[in-house]
């Protein structure tokens, strides 16, 4: 713990001694407890060294490897980027999935055209999908199978499976983007496929792949547990609509590490029924930043807890660290720590928006809201394009509580930056620039209404894509 941090803790303890009883003592005890929780909160990573153990594999073709190699070319894949190789992939999957210690190989130097397909498990143990070549989607939206409106490549019901390689998953999304109502308001608003989806799985690892030019979202982790994503590149143009980089929904114990993400929407988005999410060494830009939400649309319940971002660089994104919820929702976002973040020319660097609206029609004013509490921003530095470098736009009826700012320094190009708060309670210590004096200290009433959000029924369906382009 830094010296200044220790001094602040001692200050709080001294204040406790001076306020022997009553609301002030209760307030400081609560702040001290929450501060310790946020400072010590972490998500455990794998025990093994993935660089040397998991991925330092012997040659798949050597006798001593013990692996059963299943090459898609063996099943008739042309690999010319023009011929339809879908059936070859389905047949290869069936054999590899049903064979212990198998490796499904997509060879390098070749391009495979594959239509929308669901690859289902469960599979035999120690299954590896080695993607070294390029998998491309059909370009024409009009030729897309209507049964698979929201998916291109979906992998479900897997356990302990590894996706790895230096290959590319290319969604060929340009015609989908041109048909978006966000590109042209005369176009109908409709859903579009996600390039790569891990669905209802556990113990999955994804390493080294490039996912690019998705029709809509690039990579979704849905209703899964213990997923590890390492050294993945996600790339779509900055003006491609709704192309979230990595979207986490209904999932727990997810680690994203050493990933480089540039998209036309959120670099990372974390939505309902997700918890224990850790992001470490993330590059984001272009894009809409790193977001929790949106939550609460159409009066639904949304819950996100225990999220850590540790070490990130955001460049020229339209938002930085964002939590976004609709009016009328319920549930809570609780226990979030953003640490060691550098920003370069980022708009809205620190943003909580409980009045978010991205619907085709305007959103109505409503009193209920998703409760936001226990949010820490620590060691956040850089430059911003926005005069309001810190913005906490919280609900009057369900205020944000226990927001902590520690060592935050955001500079504007013209030197003028400010913080804005509406119904936001918390405190700052260390260097905080711009000053967040607008954060108010809670009274007894504020204490009584905060942090009593226990387990709740999750009624918002885990998202698997945007409703509209």
Automatic annotation (TrEMBL):
EC number of this enzyme: 3.2.1.15
Active site: 288
Catalytic activities: (1,4-alpha-D-galacturonosyl)n+m + H2O = (1,4-alpha-D-galacturonosyl)n + (1,4-alpha-D-galacturonosyl)m
Subcellular location: Secreted, Cell wall
Entry keyword set: Cell wall, Cell wall biogenesis/degradation, Glycosidase, Hydrolase, Repeat, Secreted, Signal
One GO process term, biological-process aspect: carbohydrate metabolic process
UniProt GO molecular function: polygalacturonase activity
Alphabetical list of SUPFAM superfamilies matching this protein: Pectin lyase-like
The protein's name in its UniProt record: endo-polygalacturonase
Source organism (scientific name): Raphanus sativus
């Amino acid at each position: 713990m830094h010296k200044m941090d220790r001094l602040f803790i001692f200050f709080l303890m001294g204040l406790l001694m001076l306020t022997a009883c009553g609301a002030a003592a209760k307030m400081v005890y609560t702040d001290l407890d929450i501060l310790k929780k946020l400072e010590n909160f972490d998500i455990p990573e794998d025990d093994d060294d993935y660089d040397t153990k998991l991925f330092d594999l012997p040659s798949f073709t050597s006798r001593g490897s013990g692996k059963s190699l299943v090459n898609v070319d063996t099943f008739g894949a042309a690999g010319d980027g023009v011929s339809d190789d879908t059936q070859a992939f389905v047949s290869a999957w069936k054999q590899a999935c049903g064979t212990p210690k198998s490796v499904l190989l997509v060879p390098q130097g070749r391009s495979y055209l594959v239509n929308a397909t669901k690859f289902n498990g469960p599979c035999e143990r120690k299954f590896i999908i080695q993607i070294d070549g390029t998998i491309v989607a059909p370009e024409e939206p009009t030729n897309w199978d209507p049964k698979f409106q929201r998916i291109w490549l979906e992998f479900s019901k897997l356990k302990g499976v590894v996706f790895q390689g230096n290959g590319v998953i290319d969604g060929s999304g340009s015609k989908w983007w041109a048909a978006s109502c966000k590109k042209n308001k005369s176009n109908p608003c409709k859903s579009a496929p996600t390039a790569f989806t891990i669905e209802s799985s556990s113990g999955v690892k994804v390493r080294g792949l490039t996912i690019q030019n998705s029709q809509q979202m690039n990579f979704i982790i849905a209703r899964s547990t213990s997923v590890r994503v390492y050294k993945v590149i996600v790339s779509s143009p900055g003006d491609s609509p709704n192309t979230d980089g990595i979207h986490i929904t209904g999932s727990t114990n997810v680690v994203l590490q050493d990933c480089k993400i540039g998209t036309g929407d959120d670099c990372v988005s974390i939505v309902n029924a997700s918890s224990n999410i850790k992001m470490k060494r993330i590059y984001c830009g272009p894009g809409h930043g790193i977001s929790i939400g949106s939550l609460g649309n159409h009066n639904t319940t949304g819950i996100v807890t225990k999220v850590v971002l540790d070490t990130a660089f955001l460049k020229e994104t339209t938002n930085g660290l964002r939590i976004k919820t609709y009016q009328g929702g319920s549930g809570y976002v609780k226990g979030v720590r953003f640490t060691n973040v550098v920003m370069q020319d980022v708009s809205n660097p620190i943003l909580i928006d409980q009045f978010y609206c991205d619907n085709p029609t305007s959103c109505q004013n409503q009193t209920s809201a998703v409760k936001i509490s226990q949010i820490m921003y620590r060691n956040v530095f850089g430059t911003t394009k926005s005069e309001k470098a810190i913005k906490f736009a919280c609900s009057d009826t369900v205020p944000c509580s226990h927001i902590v700012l520690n060592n935050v320094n955001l500079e504007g190009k013209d030197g003028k930056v400010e913080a804005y708060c509406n119904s936001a309670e918390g405190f700052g210590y260390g260097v905080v620039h711009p000053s967040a004096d607008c954060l108010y200290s809670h009274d007894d009433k504020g204490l009584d209404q905060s942090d009593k959000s226990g387990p709740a029924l999750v009624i918002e369906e885990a998202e698997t894509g945007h409703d509209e382009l």
